[in-house]
TrEMBL record:
GO terms for molecular function: diguanylate cyclase activity. GO terms for biological process: cell adhesion involved in single-species biofilm formation; negative regulation of bacterial-type flagellum-dependent cell motility. Residues 130-267 form the GGDEF domain. This is GGDEF domain-containing protein. Pfam families: GGDEF. SUPFAM superfamilies: Nucleotide cyclase (SSF55073). InterPro entries: Diguanylate_Cyclase, GGDEF_dom, Nucleotide_cyclase, Rev_trsase/Diguanyl_cyclase. NCBIfam families: GGDEF (TIGR00254). Residues 1-33 are annotated as: Disordered. It comes from the Bacteria. GO terms for cellular component: plasma membrane. Gene3D superfamilies: 3.30.70.270.
Length: 290
């Protein structure tokens, strides 16, 4: 998916055949490490990684080793095993970080990631010509699914809905669980019509999925409210909370229009997309107060 997803890959293992490159003062090249001049730095790296995981005793021992090495006139060659240990710890640290940003049930991003990433995206869009859309998506009558078929099947429904939502997302967009059966689609660098089209396609895919194969008589639909933000150099920045409130108001309009609909705003008018467009009069009346 995006940004943080691609930013969690661990560093490549050290190689001995790479040519030396000019580095800023105080930085160690890979060749330096291979020549044995960076063992103290490796111990410090291990200490930092262990400390970030709360393994204070092991971190302390590595830090002491780093201090001892820095006081040695002739530092020993870095063992290959130690370099592998650094790479392993870095990979584990990256994986733990990624897992902390994922919802345990649906594997979509969680509220923590949503809050962090959406705030960053809104800040990046200030004063640019790029639009940013946020869609709040809610499963219709989901309590009835749990009451009728049980929570285990309800969990499977949530997982499948997330898969269907994520399959239609453009590059750079992501899905996050907002809470319960509510999810947020964040669509950066997109125009209003394209954002509505993405959400309407997602709604249609959920409706057309063969739910009865999962359980006889099962039917699942979703409703969504799409709030689009397009700032300029002269406009005041919009907070993540404000955009989510706007999306929630439009979701309310979609629900009040009869559910299984995508609501969006054009100027002061609230409209419905796709097959629900004929209900736009009701949506406009009920969403007029937002």
């Amino acid at each position: 998916m995006t940004g943080l997803r691609n930013g969690f890959a661990g560093p490549e293992p050290l190689r001995d055949d790479e040519p030396p490159t000019a580095l800023p003062p105080g930085r160690r090249s890979r060749q330096d490490l291979a020549n044995g001049t960076g063992m103290a730095e490796l111990h410090e790296s291990i200490a930092n990684l262990l400390a970030s995981r709360g393994q204070w005793r092991q971190a302390y021992h590595h830090l002491r080793s780093a201090l001892d090495l820095k006081s040695t006139a002739d530092p020993p060659r870095v063992p290959e095993q130690l370099r592998h240990e650094v790479n392993r710890l870095r990979r584990e640290h990256a994986e733990a970080r990624e897992q902390s940003l994922r919802d345990s049930l649906t594997a979509s991003y969680n509220r923590r990631y949503l809050d962090e990433r959406l705030a960053d995206l809104l800040a990046d869009h200030v004063g640019t010509d790029h639009g940013l859309a946020v869609a709040l998506v809610d499963l219709d009558w989901f309590k009835q699914v749990n009451d009728t078929y049980g929570h285990l099947l309800g969990d499977r429904v949530l997982q499948r809905v997330v898969d269907l939502l994520q399959e239609v997302l453009p590059t750079g967009a992501f899905c996050a669980r907002y809470g319960g059966e509510e999810f947020v689609l964040v669509l950066p660098n997109i125009e209003p019509a394209a954002a509505v089209a993405v959400c309407e396609t997602a709604r249609s895919r959920v409706e057309r999925f063969p739910w009865a194969q999962m359980a006889p008589g099962l039917r699942v639909t979703v409703s969504a409210g799409v709030a689009h933000e397009h700032t300029t150099a002269d406009s005041a920045p919009v907070s993540a909370e404000q955009q989510l409130i706007s999306a929630d108001a439009l979701l309310y309009a979609a629900k009040q229009s009869g559910r299984n609909a995508v609501a969006y705003r054009t100027g002061a008018e609230v409209r419905l997309a796709g097959i629900a467009a004929g209900r736009r009069g009701a949506a406009a009346r009920r969403g007029a107060g937002y």
